[in-house]
Structures are given as structure tokens and as C-alpha cells.
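In the previous lecture we treated proteins in isolation. Real proteins rarely work alone, and many bind small molecules. This record shows how such a complex is specified: first the sequence, then the SMILES for S-adenosylmethionine.
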Amino acid sequence: MNTHEDVRKDVSEHYARAVSGGGGCCSPREPRGSAAKLAGYRPEDVAALPDDAVANSFGCGNPLAFADVKEGDVVLDLGSGAGIDLLIAARRVGPSGRVIGVDMTDEMIAHARRNIAAAGAGNVEVRKGIIEELPVESATVDHVISNCVINLSPDKPRVFAEIARVLRPGGRMRVSDIVARDLPDVIKAIPAAYASCVSGAISEEDYVRGLQEAGLVDVTVEERLVYSADQLVALVASDVEQAQGGGTCGCGGIPSDIVAAGAHLVEGKVWSAKVSARKPE
Ligand SMILES: C[S@@+](CC[C@H](N)C(=O)[O-])C[C@H]1O[C@@H](n2cnc3c(N)ncnc32)[C@H](O)[C@@H]1O
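The predicted 3D structure, ligand included, written as C-alpha cells:
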């Protein structure tokens, strides 16, 4: 039986390899950089970012697309990766605002810090930590965002409670994340399916209930992108491994024929949802 630490270690090693290799796992990303655009980012936002932040985008949506972030706000990004959403948020909040990213993977944090420096963003910082125990003071954040991360947590109720803790009264949470229903056991049995954002996903109903149980209100699923089999293949495929022609794809090295067969099995059962919630006044 894997402990929560084991799960986080596997996930962290997966993203350390992925960011070093340069291929996205949690997003269709062929050719490099298209993930960000496909996921609903405005071209002008993407154009203003360092290439590395775009190429190492591993999201499954754009949580900021529907967030009313304004100048002077404090934004917290859970699992901030190489920093794509940190940098877009930094422009929105301006010099009087603040953006904080939390991530557990050293390699991701190093990329994010380089990208923040390259963008000259003086209002962003990245803290090393886990989203189940956020290194952030209570009731200090106006907006919690997250892009394709909470599905990776082995303790989602804890993450939801942490979101409720750090938000100021009236603060908003908006996340893009993978949700799933009725995943076949054969898929759940593939070890790499967890870190590839598939088998750790919970149902939309459990997501909504979990946030409500944490004390958040107005919990709403604002948008859904239900993946086709082709998109699912892209979701788990690694362009690095494919480029090497090794006959495998998937950031965990899942053989490509298994990815294709598995994609058909889960078609219609896995989607990206934009979920919002509010901490009561
Ligand atoms: C799929 S990537 C998404 C990165 C980024 N949000 C983006 O859109 O490009 C997942 C990120 O979450 C981080 N992560 C996963 N589980 C975590 C946890 N329990 N605590 C902290 N970070 C975590 C990983 O290190 C990785 O950087």
C-alpha cells in the first residue's frame, strides 16, 4: 500500500523528468507550446511569456480565463510548475499585487524561478511545499488558482481544507482540473496513469462535495472539455519519447499501443473541468 509520501514522490519524479525532457503530460502538447493555446489562453498572453514557460506548460485549462483577478490582488497557484499561470497572473495584479506559487518539485521550481527572472516579474515568488500543507498564512489570499494538479494529490480533502484556510473571507477559488467517472480497473492498474493525471482523478460530484465539505460555497462547474480518444493519447504521450522512436509514449513509458487502447476505454469518462468556489464572508 502506497503512503501519501510515496504517491507524491512518484508524481514529483515524473514531473522532474517531464520538465527536464520538455514534454507536457497533462495537456495535448504537439507541437511544443500548442498546449497553452489549445487550453484557452489568449494569444497575446502567451506571446508575452518566456518560451520555457510555454513549452513546459502541463495544464489542462486556463484557470485565469474566468477569474476576476484585478490590480493589487494576491493570487496563489497550487502546483505552479514552470510558471505559466504565475506570469499571466503577475501581469493582471500589477506591481501592487502579489502572486505566490507552491510546488514540491525542485526541477519545476528552478524553471519557474528562471522564467520569473526572464519575465522581470518582481511581484511573483515560488515556495517549495505540498498543496496538502500550504506554506501560506491563513486568510491572506484573494484568489486560489490551480491547473491540472489537485487530481494528483493523494489527499484531496486536505487540499480542499487548505484552500478554505488560506482564502480571505469572500476570496475565490478557480481551478482547471481533470475529473473522471467509472474508470475501468485496467486503467487504474497502470502505475503511470496516476502521474499522467488520469487515475487520480475523482468524479465531478466528489469534487463539488469535497469543496463544500471544506466550507466553500457557490461551488460551480463552469466549463467542461470532454476528451476524445485522440486527445487522451496526447494527454499522456510524451513527445520526447516519441521523438526518440522508442515505440513507447507516455511520461511513465506506457507502450503506445496500450495508450491507444486505453484511450478508447476511457473516452467520455475523463474530462477537464473548470471549477469555482467562494469562501463565505
Ligand atoms: C500537471 S503539472 C501542472 C503544472 C502547472 N500548473 C501548469 O499548468 O503547467 C503538476 C504540477 O504540480 C506539482 N504537484 C503535484 N502534486 C503536488 C503536491 N501534492 N504538492 C505540491 N505540488 C504538487 C508537480 O510538481 C507539477 O509541477
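Summary for your notes: The pocket of S-adenosylmethionine is lined by residues 8, 11-12, 15, 26, 57-59, 79-81, 84-85, 103-105, 108, 130-132, 147-149, 152-153, 197 (CB under 6 Å). Strands lie at 74-78, 98-103, 124-128, 141-147, 167-180, 217-226, 270-278.
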